[in-house]
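User: Hey, quick favor. My workstation is busy. Could you predict this chain's structure for me?
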Amino acid sequence: MTSTVGVDQDFEALLDYIKRQRGFDFTGYKRPSLTRRFEKRMQVVEAESYRDYLDLLEAQPQEFADLFDTVLINVTSFFRDRETWEYVAEEILPQVVGSKGSSDPIRVWSTGCATGEEAYTAAIVLAEALGGQAFADRVKIYGTDVDGEALTSARHASFPPDQLEPVPEALREKYFEPEENGRRLVRSELRRNVIFGRHDLVQDPPISRIDLLICRNTLIYFSPRTQETILENFHFSLNESGFLLLGRSEAVSRQASLFEPVDLKRRVFAPVARVDDFRKRLLTLVRAPGEAEEVGAALVAEQLRETAFELSPVAQLIIRNDRTLAFANAQGRKLFSLGNGDIGRRFDELDASSTPLKLRSLIESAHADRRPVLVDEVAWPIGNGERRYYDVEVIPMLGVADAAGTSIAFTDITRYKNMQQSAEAVQDELASAYTQAQSQAEDLETTNEELQSTNEELETTNEELQSTNEELQTMNEELQAMNEELQAMNDELNRRTIELDRANELMDSVLGHVRAAVVVVDADLAVEAWNERAEDMWGLAANKVHGKKLLELEIGFPVVELEPLLRQCLDGEAGEEVVAPAVTRLGKPIQCRVTCTPLETPAQTRGAILVMEELQT
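Assistant: No problem, here it is.
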């Protein structure tokens, strides 16, 4: 390990590099504990000096993640120091609520929140104190940390049973719902009022108008001067009636003029109003770019975006450029059985990369063309002979210089696909019902004639006939109602027909993307269609050959040999294959197989379809 000579200078250069490259400012942390954690990581990677470790970070940027995991120790739990939380619930929160109007917002800031247990603890305590509706309408809890992975875990709000042991059983049942994997998820009515975002206590401006600020065992990692700066920011953040809750190992002795103790045993403090408080607030705003409230707004905006992504009914995955899984919303995790441990894994290692279709080529195509790639009606067998259908859309997420990642959306269209497949059955049923109704109408007409004749001949049966006529009128009304239903079904059939027409248009589009060269000619052997593969193979654009005689074209294939095959197709017969040597537009000699199929309508043969493809040797 490095010697003491030049250690400070090399270590400070290392910290400056980390700040410039990753935005993490460790310069305010206590040097003894900070150097111990750096040296612990350096021993793992066998770096002999701080300079060697800086060179390693330059060569292997992925090492930053492991370093931050070592330096940023995330120690937290639900209801940590239960006696303190009982004091907060019984003594502090009543004062906070009492200082507010009945509809005024209550704002809580949990700094260094790690994986979110403390922020959710505050949410539970406030929900119990206010009641569910008042909590939903009035409370905003901001959980901040510099560890992005810890914040991601906090947003997922999913915890194993052992982490929930400190939570009383009644509260556990009330505020957590079980998941299939044995974990428990914070209920949405509690989770939606907790906002998580990245915030550096050293560099970023504080969040303002806070009623309860929780910073437990976070200040101990910073140097005394940095602690003073942070406490000044905390003083700015708190309302006059607010409270500061610190950890057991922390105090505000260096900033006694800013805070007065409320309960030293439980480390609860209240801000002291100062004459120069306004000047201090201005200095705080000057020290950090932008207004302090912008951080709170940014956290709200970030939470809104993440909540919308998480609750989207469409399964979505976000893939980084290094092909690792960055995010998966609730539907995406459910669809592919993903857990928190799968976030950050190589996408190629997950089933989602190849089920229900292989996505690697689609991702490459989307980034190459810089536009979304859509694959329609992808079938996914789910067992018992059943299958689901998805529209899969691969969207390149474009950054400043290049694509920043890829979004993949899986839209479940099974219901619409099943409706489309049942359209023919519905049409048959409609035809049968129409025939039956027509037959019933004819029978009704015959019956009316017979009844009319009987009425003239048998006056004595007039009362019976009147009764029969009433029954017939009822039947007629039922038939009218049936006709109305048939009309509605017919309208539905028309709508389905339009959808089928759109599907046919889509299939026409797909035909244009087949790998073989496709040429369509009319009865006079003039070119009507010439797909992209034909352009690539023979070097002639479609607009140059449209309407020209195929047998007069000068391409790398002996077209005169196709005349017998074409004549046979125009006579309505499927022609045999023709294989002949040819030369592509690039001058490559190939063996080309040509297949001809009649292009027929119900009335006549109106042309022929030629498929030209290179035979692989």
